[in-house]
Amino acid sequence: MSIAVTSHSGPAAAPPPEPPTPPVNYLNVSHTIWSWLFTVDHKRIGILYLVSISIFFVAGGAAAGIVRLNLLQPDGAIVSEDAYNRAFTAHGVLMLFFFLIPAVPAVFGNFFIPMMIGTKDLAFPKLNIASWYVFMIGAVCAVWAVLAGGIDTGWTLYPPYSTRASQSNVIPGVMGAFISGFSSIMTGLNIMVTVHKMRAPGMTWGRLPLFVWALYATSLIQLLATPVVAISLVLIMVERVAGIGIFDPTIGGDPVLFQHLFWFYSHPAVYIMILPGMGVISEVLTCFSRKNIFGYHAIAWSSVGIAVVGFLLWAHHMFVAGISFYAALLFSLLSMLVAVPSAIKVFNWVATLYRGSITYQAPMLFSLGFVVLFIVGGLTGLFLATLGTDIHLHDTYFVVAHFHFVMVGGMVMGYFAALHFWWPKMTGRMYSDWWSRMAAAIIIFGFFITFIPQFVMGYHGMPRRYPNYPAEFQFLNVMSTAGASILGIGYLMPAVYLTLSLFFGKRATANPWSATGLEWQCPSPPVVHNFEHMPLVVVCGPYEYALGVDQLGRGLPEPPGSQDDPAHRDGVTGPAGPMHKETEVVG
Amino acid sequence: MTTMNMLPLIPEMASDGARHFEALFWYITLTSSAVGIGVYIALLYFCVRYRRGQTTGSTPRILGSVRLELTWTLVPMFVFLTYYAWGAMVYNKAVHPPEDATEIFVIGKQWMWKAQYPNGQRVIIGGNPRNMSESERQSIGKLVLPMNRPVKLTFISEDVIHDFGVPAFRSKIDVIPGRYSQVWYQPTKLGEYHVYCDQYCGTWHSLMVGKIKVVEGKEFDEFLSGYAPLQGTQNAVDGSLAHEGRQLFLKLQCINCHSATPTGKAPVLEGLYGSRVPLKGGGAEIADDAYIIESIRRPRLKVVDGWEAIMPAYDETQVSAEELNAVVAYIRSLRKGTTPDRTERFPAPNGAPTERQQSPQPSGGK
Ligand code: HEM
Ligand SMILES: [Cu+2]
């Protein structure tokens, strides 16, 4: 659809013709390795994070490969029990602390928050690069722990196993998680202050893109919850070294205390992992269906609602850990309540598609994958939050399947959606349309084959963290491993075509998806200070696709995919000018 | 690859609690699937109906609808609350044992479960033989439970956190060092069921698995009173009447003649109980309690065909009536391959003060 906006209250009349890639941008402004390592440019820091977490994703994926291959046979196909325990711990620690938690906030938050709210940089650029160093120091500790023989406690680190019994590298592993936590706090703080203080003129809270709202809510959790895990990790280290009996009942401690402390962080942490993904989905679904989001306020506030209520239900991980009956009743009730905002979001996303004009490039496919998989993950959470069913399903493969549906099916899909959505902006290059759609399809398919069998196994009682299992579970385990292989291939594909795109990809225009956000106002790749002309005055909400205008009130370029249909070619525009369009409210 | 057996659609249900779980589980499954599938259908329909090729390219500016949003906030909330309420009822039942439940104590230890019955019988369930002592290995068996009667299990752990999970009963509970936890069942189906350790507890976590055996109430009573060797262990387990009898068997030196390496003097007693014994001079008798008691008190009365009448009589002063009971229980429990060897030295079973005090010398005759 091409709409020529001629008269509009915005500051600029028509979009200027796309200049060719500007000669100087944040990527080519300097080339030395030092210029990257000492950069304070939020975009370069985002890229540093992107490179590092990609490495951890591959490492964590390799550990998952060992786990899945070993489960091909009931008595363990490839490694010893000990090696298996170390592999699933490495997988959990790397994926959670070094991939999922930083993935969207540190890569895309860093890179795009300033651009989306119309500013030059984050509030504290030096803190930002420091956070990357802190993250890497934490990662070095974790990698050291793995290389020195691994940790065998599971990512949950329950004492007294982790403090007394385990013969493995608990201290360096815990140190890694502890240190990287500070980087999470720094990033959260930076984003919060930036969103509060540095929005462009006219960028009111009601005009913030939902991605920003989601990261704002995430930052709230990072800031408030991470110190608690830091404390509990320190206590684990102290206990292990000095044995003073904080968690050890033989000298007066209480192992359940650790579970409270741990989940008081780690439950909100699962929202650190999923909320950013939800933010991405809100951006992508609107863009590729050319629609205003349905229920902007509901989505924005449900993010904040999840962040707040998410603090109140940590003990639902402990229904069978001997907590009191009344505590269990309360935590179950609160868990039910947190499911509501998640449900609201799903309904809103689906409603957004209603009467849209939808195209299916890779970011859209990943986002639809997110919605489809997240529904399964969210609904199965209800079985775990319900007391009567959790007493059987707890600590079985049902739980494993549930959180993989949410975090891999949800968050990793969100991450890939973000990567594909913003890749042209970050690199200035387009990737292969066909290959990227194939990758999305393969990932979604592989995902179902991998994790659906795990629900069945868990329902039949197969416990998690088992290298050996009764033979009747073999068929489903083999199926799950087969699915994981497909999934692995799916995840490797983007590595290939995205890398190739850097060298052979078509040059991206400033706004290849014809999206409304301010980040699309910068050239691709952006110049060092993001915008050529500051300050910007924002006059529209974030998703005026129906009006065909961006946040500055300027007309959008031709959306991709329109050329498929001659009716929508240039000159053959649809109805009258956008400002005459009536606003419809259904219901 | 071994042949793969398939799982049934619904896992075995062997307790009252399992029935309640299933009802609730299917209620949640059906209602939430209905919603999920509804959303999928809407999603699919929109994706097909409103794809770019099917539209004019312009879209209506729909911002939301308070009425719709309220509906899809309140309706799910109501449905979730029904899950909550029903779930709380099932949980309430599951965590509050009835007064009259038989109590069994279980200690979790890397990597085995040590159970003890009210009368002192002990058995080790599951576990990994590789890290067990000889005597522990000897008492690996099954946890015997009665049909249709409530049993309450009280747990504590000796080292790290474990979890006692029984899928057929749809139940699990963490087993924690330093605090007691409890669970109860009312088994409703005869058979054998898996026990798993569900809380990660170290290297052999996955081998901390065992069996529960549900038997008729009558059989359970018999087992509790020490006769029936239902636990599937090789030997009479520690604390049972049969085990006491076994110690007497050694102490009284019955073993000298009735040993696994027959001296030619006396028959091996395994498998004797309940069998038909041919007697010298014709006739036969079923070896029941009375026959065995008689054979000990007055051995010359009925001599087994093919053997010399050389066994001494044991009177009240040598074997009390109570002890006699224990010896009979032991003989009842003897199964093929479980008669000790006379020259063998027996390690004292775990926590068996009687044996240690009496320091049996099975080969003392030498
Ligand atoms: C919003 C996205 C969600 C994320 C990121 C998430 C993530 C997770 C993770 C990582 C675990 C496993 C923790 C472990 O290792 O024990 C878990 C378990 C659990 N989740 Fe979720 N979940 C989400 C949604 C939900 C919802 C909507 C509910 C409730 C209605 C829920 C209820 C539970 C419960 C009760 C458990 C504990 C189960 C058990 O250990 O028995 N989750 N979740
Ligand atoms: Cu265990």
Automatic annotation (TrEMBL), chain A:
SUPFAM superfamilies: Cytochrome c oxidase subunit I-like. The chain crosses the membrane at residues 47-67, 87-108, 129-151, 171-193, 213-238, 262-281, 293-317, 323-344, 365-385, 397-422, 434-456, 476-500. It is found in: Membrane. It is a multi-pass membrane protein. GO terms for molecular function: cytochrome-c oxidase activity; heme binding; oxidoreductase activity. Pfam families: COX1 (PF00115). Residues 554-587 are annotated as: Disordered. Its EC number is 1.9.3.1. GO terms for biological process: aerobic respiration; electron transport coupled proton transport; respiratory electron transport chain. GO terms for cellular component: membrane. PROSITE patterns: COX1 (PS50855), COX1_CUB (PS00077). Residues 28-538 form the Cytochrome oxidase subunit I profile domain. InterPro entries: Cyt_c_oxase-like_su1_dom (IPR023616), Cyt_c_oxase-like_su1_sf (IPR036927), Cyt_C_Oxase_1 (IPR000883), Cyt_c_Oxase_su1_BS (IPR023615). Keywords: Electron transport, Heme, Iron, Membrane, Metal-binding, Oxidoreductase, Respiratory chain, Transmembrane, Transmembrane helix, Transport. Belongs to the heme-copper respiratory oxidase family. This is Cytochrome c oxidase polypeptide I. It comes from Frigoriglobus tundricola.
From TrEMBL, chain B:
It is found in: Membrane. SUPFAM superfamilies: Cupredoxins (SSF49503), Cytochrome c (SSF46626), Cytochrome c oxidase subunit II-like, transmembrane region (SSF81464). InterPro entries: CcO_II, CcO_II-like_C, Copper_CuA, Cupredoxin, Cyt_c-like_dom, Cyt_c-like_dom_sf, Cyt_c_oxidase_su2, Cyt_c_oxidase_su2_TM_sf. One of its GO terms (molecular function) is copper ion binding. PANTHER family: CYTOCHROME C OXIDASE SUBUNIT 2, CYTOCHROME C OXIDASE, SUBUNIT II. Residues 337-366 are annotated as: Disordered. It is a multi-pass membrane protein. Residues 240-335 form the Cytochrome c domain. Belongs to the cytochrome c oxidase subunit 2 family. Subunits I and II form the functional core of the enzyme complex. Electrons originating in cytochrome c are transferred via heme a and Cu(A) to the binuclear center formed by heme a3 and Cu(B). The chain crosses the membrane at residues 24-48, 68-86. Residues 355-366 have a biased composition (Polar residues). This is cytochrome-c oxidase. One of its GO terms (cellular component) is membrane.
